[in-house]
Fold each of these.
Amino acid sequence: MTVGKGGPTARAVDWLVAGLIVCNVVAVVLGTVDPLFDRYRSVFYTFELLSVGVFTAEYVLRVWSATAVEEYDHPVFGRLRFMTRPAVVIDLIAVAPFYLGTVVFASDLRVLRALRLVRFLRLFKLARYSRSVDRFRRVMRRKTGDLVVAIVGTSLLLTLASSLMYFVEHDAQPAAFSSIPAALWWGVVTLTTVGYGDVYPVTPLGKLLGATVAVLGTGLVALPASILASGFIAADADPDQCPHCGRDLD
């Protein structure tokens, strides 16, 4: 993980917030263990209160100081426009469950439990403190077109294979292949080579079709991974930092 570009104090704050985010995720995971949560309820609540205070202060300060950037220099509309940025919206969602659970849904334990899990979104705040996550985002943006083509191709093959399997196997297995949507489950586990074995063809033609789809799926489903791999290789060839001084390259 690489923290921000400021001085030692700014980097220390970045590490503190990043560590607090990770601790929050751990707390959410442990909080789902009912005996542990019941025993240390006050500890969980105190930690959540402290975390929400830090995250709320960070959110308010970021929105308040947004006018320092020319794009958001208007004191009202600039800040409102800044608040619509995806990263800032995630910051708001990260603290909203606490206030909603305390004020709005204080008596609904089921909603409170769901809101606790929403705090997993705080993990996305780590992107601000990790150069690797930012690099992954840039690769995804560059390869969006290729990924869309790969996903569309996989979806077409899945639909076609499931439809053919329905017509081939429906008479032999009316319960397992009762409809094309039901056959989609077989298509997914076959294309992804998972093969749970709960639904499988029994006719000779169905087995031939299943084998063909499994072979095609081995390469087609792996295509998005190869696209991302090529994107990271290209990113390595075009570094975002100077190898000599370590400064960011524009």
Note: Confidence is low (pLDDT under 50) at residues 1-5, 242-246.
Amino acid sequence: MDFERFKRTHAPTDSQDTFQLENSYTLDVAVDGTIMAKVGSMIAYTGDLSFTGKASAEGGIRGFLKQAATNEGTPIMAVEGHGHVYLADHQKKVQILELGPDDSVSVNGEDVLAFESGLSYEIDTIDSLAGAFAGGLTNVYLEGPGRLAITTHGDPLVVEPPVSTDPSATVAWSGTTPAVEVNKNLSDMIGQESGERFQMNFTGGDGFVVVQPYEER
């Protein structure tokens, strides 16, 4: 492939859409003010932008995620100014969600890539999963309207409740709330406990659950 063809094939899309996929793994955010993004996700940017870490609950983002030193959740940064920022996270696939005024979603804190600053949100920890994750599972509850980008290892599967999922493979859910149970019947043949012993049980006929073909560790 010659240089000019290579440049044309892989050049960024000329668009002013706030959130746009450049490919399956790269998010292009047109910044005109402030957006929030996962720390370490910036791979390139153009224009006049500044990046401010917001890892602490005492920072400008009210209680967003726990300190990275605890290995729980993921710190974020405010991207401010005017320009384009390109975001990616370890070659995970990027999914863009458009939340309406009455829409809400809970996302595993590790799988939040970016969101518009106008979204309202709060943080919660599922302490009943402390046996599977140190300190429990940190998730972010976001309410629209606004855009949100999440990441998945591979192509996600979106299922409707009732359904039971592996917490390590559960990315997000909406319109339903999980109950965590321990299935004592699931154990390895050699006597060790299987990770699938912990289950998130989603009930009700509304909503959806997003799982990925990968177990976070």
Note: The mean pLDDT is 83.
Amino acid sequence: MLLKRLDQVEYALAALLLATIVILVFSAALMRFFGHPLIWSVDMAQLLFIWLCMFGATRALRTKSHLGIDILVRYLPHKQRFWLELALSALILAFLAMLTVEGIRLTLLNLARRFGDSGISYGWVTAAVPAGCVMLAIALVVNMVRAWRRRSDGETLVYSRSDSEIAQAVEH
């Protein structure tokens, strides 16, 4: 239930960010046409876009919607594919942990730097990296736990949707 609520909040935030970006870019174009450019709006749209990308990537990971090339692993038996996906997930978690640490360092270095003409700290831009990595790591761990709990069903994996997951996605 908590994960469903988190998914709804995440979706609402992403929709709000996208709507705000569209409004900012449209307003900037309109004001530029009338000779009164909104210089800060492009910077703000870029800032919101990086955060939107992080929310979108997390949602895609959680719902197993990322594009993937599975031509080699598709022919592996379920058990071997399951263990391969768990091993790859561990590597990805290590990479996300490294990016989180380095992203925090970069954010702290950029707190005093100003972002374009907006006047806000560039730290807000770079903070999307560690925040996004934490969100991705949480989504990945949730997928790993679900796959582990259902490992005996012969179809649930970490990254690939099972037939029942496809049917559930179609219903929503």
Note: The mean pLDDT is 89.
Amino acid sequence: MIIDPVTLIVALITISTPVLLAALGELVVEKAGVLNLGVEGMMIMGAVCGFIVANLTGSPTLAFLAGMLGAALLSSIFAILTQLLMSNQVATGLALTLFGLGLAALLGVGYEGQPIPEVAKPLPASLREIPVIGPIFLGHDLVTYIAIFAVFGLWYILWHTRLGLIIRAVGESHDAAHALGYKVVRIRFAAILFGGAMAGLGGAFLSVIYVENWVQGMTAGAGWIALALVVFAAWKPGRVLFGAWLFGGIAALQLRLQAAEVGVPVALLDASPYLVTIIVLVVMSSDRAKTALNAPAALGKTFHATG
């Protein structure tokens, strides 16, 4: 069995795009000091809203905007409950996922298998046909490029702008940020809406571009993977990109192994991306635990040496 590396790289970039978008949105939410476990529900809401609008209007642009709006509206429920009514974030996020999955299933009734327009590539076909470079770098859709550029954009905003400083200040100490005159609730509300819009864009990408169909439960745990990637990346956009491509590469590889009918159970191949994610998280958690255990000893040695 021979797997074309170029095709594999193209597939991993495509598969990782929805997870990358959702993870970047959740990274901003958590940087603002909020944990939203409703990413899965927001992604599926973006998927169904985007697909319905694509089917009704024939406009991919409106479809993506609808996906972002639908998920942002869903995230606003979470924002109201946690920031204004002070409900528990974990319980509210889990409820948001269940509500989103149920509402999306209801809205999507009758849309399975309905036609939608094909999304055009932004670059000319002559560039996309260049060997190796064309398919890998120049053959993707606009949303994929937006996702990659968003990594660098968020990195710059969070660490090199006043807005990023405010978001991090609110997340690290809301009391101190409030004392400095920042509207903590408004900032967190805006961060939650941004996270919802990004998750919705990822969901719309999934239904309008990647699958080109609406299937109930089509996110299949992508929102939970996005949450795990934020932890894996230690809340750094560059590491989120690496983690998303790692997940996408494993998912693309297992699909090709299934197509080649290798002697491995299909259920194990389907679970492999999630198993690898769990293993990576366990290894990283172990390393962090060792660092935390060694930190007091190191501080003691430093104090003794300087004392």
Note: The chain has a mean pLDDT of 88.
